[in-house]
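Submission sheet (multi-component)
Chains listed below:
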Amino acid sequence: SYELTQPPSVSVSPGQTARITCSGDALPKQYAYWYQQKPGQAPVVMIYKDSERPSGIPERFSGSSSGTTVTLTISGVQAEDEADYYCQSGDSSNKVFGGGTKLTVL
Amino acid sequence: QVQLQESGPGLVKPSGTLSLTCAVSGGSISSNNWWSWVRQPPGKGLEWIGEIYHSGSTNYNPSLKSRVTISVDKSKNQHSLNLSSVTAADTAVYYCARALVYMPGGSYFDYWGQGTLVTVSS
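Outcome: structure written.
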C-alpha cells in the first residue's frame, strides 16, 4: 500500500492562480486523477491521466506531473471553485485517495 | 446518462454487517467498466473500499479486505457491498461509483451515486 500527501488547505484571492500538490512515491509510475467535492455533494472528476480534462470541465483547471508530485492548477480562480480537492492514484488492483485539500477563495 | 442509486439500512449495530446495494440505470453493468464503493467518514476524506467487474472479478482495499465482499447481479443491473464486523469507525457516507476504463489498466470515477449515510451504533 502507499500514500498520497496533500496540503490540508490552500487559500487564494479571486482571479489568482491556485496550485494544489499531491505527493507519492508511486506517482512516477501511476497516473493521477483529481476530484472536486462541494459540501453535501458527490465528488466530480476534474483531471484524469495526470493532465487530461474530461468534457465539460472548464479550461482553467489543469494538471501536471513531475517526479513524485502531481499538481492541480486552477487559473483565474472563481468563488465557485471553493471546495475540497482530492487526488487519487492506483494500479489495476488498488486505488488510493489523498487526504484532501480545502481550497478557500478569499 | 448513467445514474447510480445507493440503498440500504442507515443504522447498523456494532459487530453487525453493513449491506448496501447500488442500482445502475441509463447504462449496463456489463459494460467495460469497474463498479466501485467509496466511503467518507463525517468531516473526513475519501476512502476507496473496493470494486467489481461484471465478470465477478474483484479488487479490495487491503486495509478492509478481510471484512469486505462486493457482488454483482447482472439480471438486476446492480451491485452490492457487505462489510462485516462493523464498529463506530465504519460510520460514513457510502458512495457507489463507476470507474470508467479509458485505457487498459487505467480508470477514473466518472459517475457517482448521491451517497448514503450509514451510522454504526447500538
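Remark: The CA atoms of residues 21 and 80 of chain B lie 4 Å apart.
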